[in-house]
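help with this:

***
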Amino acid sequence: MKTAKGLFSRLTLMFLGLSAACSPGLPPGATPTARPSLWQGAIPIGEILAHPEAYRGREVLIVAYYRGWDLFGEVGHGPPLTRSDVAVADATGAIYIAPASENAFPSSPPLPPWDPASTEVLLRWRGTVERAPAGMLYLRVVEGEVVEGLPVDVLLRIRRQGGLAGFDQELMITEQGTIYLLDRRIRRHGRVRIDPLEVRRVLGKLSSLSGAEYGTPVPDGFVYTLNFWSGDKLRALVLYDPSAGQTPAAVQEVLEAIRSWFAMGITHLSGPVRVAVDALAERLGIPREEIEVVSYDPVPQNWPDTRMGCPEPGAVYAPVITSGYRVFLKARGRSYELHVNQEGTQVTFCGP
């Protein structure tokens, strides 16, 4: 009996050790249970959107940025009840909220729904998931408070400003390796996936930096403002790229990763991808935020006719050479391949 108990104890310890070692996306030295206290009891918005009937009528807690009158088009539809409804968003999705009482929204700081500056405010909301008469999902909020930190599962947030074109873009990167890119100027957004271990490596480099600012700004250069967890506290770091002065090797490695993440996200915000996502959302009757961009072939293909390699039963196609792109998406556990012509005016579905 002692031998059996000893074997069970050793196996249990081995399992716990493997679980800790294999947890993706956590900063070096962290364990799967070392999550910020701000996230306790909260769920991502995307979880609600993916399983609306499971959450309908239930009280939930979310941590999300204020988005006013859906200033960046993240929800994708109009307010569910009245024009005073406002939107909130995290890295996984966006949803409208409506107050259950006059005191449901925090009074300080003031949050004008038309002001982009207010979209930098992070709040923790408690409310009940409901469905409007028109069918839209929303959160009936009973309590909201301004907090400091990052939304659930987000380990790193990066805002990039400047450049010749006056960019204003941001990334939210989750512990699962999902990158959410928001272009604030042109109101576009999308998600891509990277290896969670890559996130760990970058967080390790950031943890090794003791300063709050690295580099010297130059005209038409980029300013990166980074926010990331250091234990249960939020840390801020500013990087200049390019820099007039020398910067540590760790900063250069971090900047190299950041540049590649922004490039990857911007590629997936291109016209054909947006058209394909919109077409699939309309066909399935789901929000755009539930659709994941798996990959996108940026090299145009030439097809012999307007069916673009994916004929649909009963449809008539013109026998003219048509150039376009292949876009691969995933929604609710199923994969989809769509072909979009070069002008973005025609979409064909391959398979289901």
